[in-house]
Amino acid sequence: MILFKKASDISDYIAQQQLIGREIGLVPTMGALHQGHMALIEACREQSDITACTIFINPTQFNDPKDFQKYPITIEKDIYLLEKNGADIIFLPPIEQIYPQGTNNIEQYELGYLETILEGQYRPGHFQGVCQVMHRILDIIKPQHLFMGQKDFQQCMVIKRLLQLMKSTIIFHTCPTVRETDGLAMSSRNMRLKPEERKKAVAIYEALTNIKKNLKPGDLQRLIANAKDILIENDFAIDYVEIADANTLELAHSWDGKQQQVALIAAFQQEVRLIDNMILTD
């Protein structure tokens, strides 16, 4: 495994590998890695000749500066996990390698409807920051394959939009959410949960499961209200509980029994904001 910190060095190395016909797969992360990330590494290894992983905590996607300051940093553990699980390359750049001109007055992206709802509504500017960093990383590494997790369902849709704007030929792979044994979606933010908060956090999974179990054609408001009750009973402060079209993310108030749907939740367990989702129909 090779660790790079300079954009020019990793770009040169990958260009050499691609000249001899090797395909590059990329798993972008902000560190604080867990088994969900390792599942992405495994998927990448199966599809690519070289598996690259980035670790970069991107300041432009944090609309709350306190959230940025509290983001867990576990670099030594991360490197160990990546080497153990077969990553070939790690890109661990300082901020000036990604934003050599600084982070003020940088480009904006036309994301349309995706930026107005759910995460876009509750975290204004977040998806612009995601696109800013991903555009730069993709330009540096130039992978043939890109792997991200379904837990960030809306973010995956945003990245697909970014690839369209870039006119990119990169193949995007959305990988299933990896969960703890009790159903809680694996997340770097879980590290910040206190023991009692961790016990209550599984209510997000229970709320999603309740929606899926009871889904039937017709009005969806009672399903959403019941899910909110489950969260409130477990001391969650709710940003949103919604059901949406799984292909467009258009919010749904009723269901025709045919259209593929996804349930999405964002809520705070004390100071820790958690998100999760579940595809409701095949």
How far apart lie the N and C ends? 39 Å
Our count of domains comes out at: 2
Q: Compute the average pLDDT.
A: 97
Order of helices and strands: EHEHEHHEHHHEHEHHEHEEEE
Categorize the overall geometry. Answer: globular
Q: Using the 3D structure, state the CATH architecture of the largest domain.
A: 3-Layer(aba) Sandwich
**Which structural class best describes the helix and strand composition?**
alpha/beta
The CATH topology of the largest domain is given as Rossmann fold
Tally of individual helices: 11
What is the helix fraction of residues, given as a range? 25-40%
Instruction: Report Rg.
Output: 19 Å
Total DSSP E strands: 11
| CATH class type of the largest domain | Alpha Beta
- Relative strand content: 15-25%
Ranges where pLDDT stays below 50 over 5 or more residues in a row are none
Short structural summary:
The chain has eleven helices and eleven strands. With 282 residues, it is of the alpha/beta class. The chain has a six-stranded parallel beta sheet with strand order 1-4-3-2-5-6, with helices on both faces. A three-stranded antiparallel beta sheet has the order 8-10-11, covered by helices on one side. Strands 7-9 form a two-stranded antiparallel ribbon.
